[in-house]
Amino acid sequence: MTLPPLPAQPADTPWPTETWPSGAALPPAVTAALDAAFTPDALPRIGRTDVVLIVQGGRIVYERYGDGLTADSTFPSWSKAKSMTQALAGILVGDGRLDIHAQADVPEWRQAPGDPRANITTDQLLRMSSGLKFVEDYVPGHVSDVIEMLYGAGKDDTAAYAAAQPLEHPPGAVMSYASGTTNILARALSRALETDAAGFEAFMRARLFGPLGMASPLPKFDAAGTFIGSSFCFCSARDFARFGLLYLRDGVWDGRRLLPEGWVDYARTRTSSKDDPAAPYGAHWWLGVGGPGSFSANGYDGQYTVVVPDLDLVLVRHGATPLDLKDNLKAWVGEVVEQIRRGD
To answer: What CA–CA distances, in Å, run from 215 to 19, 53, 137, 203, 315?
Structure first.
């Protein structure tokens, strides 16, 4: 499969490590459509919108916050943290500390000879095709491994809880979205660094957040010291946009390569053509929300960072969208991007 090209970077490309420059305003019709998301009339269709931030050409072209919120406010990542975990894995690949095609470093799967889970690779964890049984359900009262992992029996050691799950499919055979695999991955990254929670957070800040000028991130760790990469890294909207811009710029920031060459393309390459066509997935990034060639970090309750290469654009949206409205919100994001694409 041929991926659409990432945008070229002219000599005057801004790098908002410290401050964001402003760009030309969006067409009035687009601005009106975005403003409408903050009105009471939008609540029944897409829920509450707390912020929309759009960056085009490296410059902010739209930024609006809900009542009482500002550019300094932080927002929950939920599963957008998965895409950050993918970036951290890429850094370790670039350092020669991680081979994604080798068996994942999960001690529990080596305890019994012949355990088929030992064949699961890091690539399969990143592509949500490990084959592990994991119920990703966010409805209270339903059987839910993700709720049990984050708030119940697994909360003190999220990776151990996820690693204890049995195989439901052969590794690599089926893409099945599972937050547990990200926490297994996060622990494996920490093991590759041979460090604890404090050391891992220092690594995150020194190698990812700091170079981008991301000052707001608040990553959460469980009692075992594992970054809860499935779900918890609070950031400001502008810092989420900085992270999206890193991927729009092919892992390069202000002349410095932070992610290894090819890592962004790996993120946006579809896991399998046999998987759900309505929800195509790459490597810890979703595909297609902003139209063909786009890829995005998506989080529970309607959190989005959408990267749109053909428009040189990043869209960040945070809010509170009930599960029964999530498809409406996804469609709204796509409609906004398409309206910008049409230029009206």
So the answer is: 12, 17, 32, 14, 20
Tell which phi-psi region holds residue 301, choosing left (phi > 0), alpha (psi between -120 and 50) or beta.
left
**Angstrom distance (rounded) from CA 324 to CA 138:** 12
Measured CA to CA, the distance from residue 199 to residue 337 in angstroms comes to: 39
pTM value is: 0.97
CB 244 within 8 A of CB 314: yes
CA gap 258, 268 in Å, rounded = 17
Q: How many CB atoms lie within 10 A of CB 301?
A: 18
The CA radius of gyration of the chain, in Å to the nearest whole number, is 19
Helix, strand, or coil (residue 221): strand
Per residue of the chain (344 residues), what is the pLDDT tens digit?
Answer: 689 999 998 888 999 999 999 999 999 999 999 999 999 999 999 999 999 999 999 999 999 999 999 999 999 999 999 999 999 999 999 999 999 999 999 999 999 999 999 999 999 999 999 999 999 998 877 889 999 999 999 999 999 999 999 999 999 999 999 999 999 999 999 999 999 999 999 999 999 999 999 999 999 999 999 999 999 999 999 999 999 999 999 999 999 999 999 999 999 999 986 777 767 999 999 999 999 999 999 999 999 999 999 999 999 999 999 999 999 999 999 999 999 999 88
- Domains in the chain, CATH or no CATH each: 28-82+197-342 (3.40.710.10), 97-192 (1.20.58)
